Amino acid sequence: MKNLILIFTLLVYSVSLSAQDYAVALNSNSRTVSKIEKGLNQFTSDILLNEEFKYRDFLRQSKTSKANFYSNGKTFTKKELTKLLRKSARSSGTYKEFQELLENTYPKFLRVLSDDEMHLLYERFRKGTFNAYIQNLIENW
């Protein structure tokens, strides 16, 4: 019995020593990227899950928020990101133009969100703009 315990102990010890050779170092950047993407997902889910989204109310709430979003060395506050999305939706006539504008200014959006979510985001920020009002007036005339 003593020999069995001694052999088992030596076996476990030798396996643990050789297992260190197969250790893999993780890249620390992957965790920060996922943290950034998690923040963007939280921001967009606040917008997409709200059926009666109103830009002015959301902007008022975002002014008090201290959340920051990072892209290519730039830091955006929640208020700035909200204004950027509204400006992009207002200045673009179609969803494709909206997508291209966001790709140029904030490329992380395209990696984080699916096409359906981006389209919903465009519709939510487009609703209530003067251009959307004129377009609805022309279509329903």
TrEMBL record:
Superkingdom field: Bacteria
For this UniProt record, the keywords arranged alphabetically read as follows:
Signal
Signal peptide range: 1-19
This protein is called: DUF4476 domain-containing protein
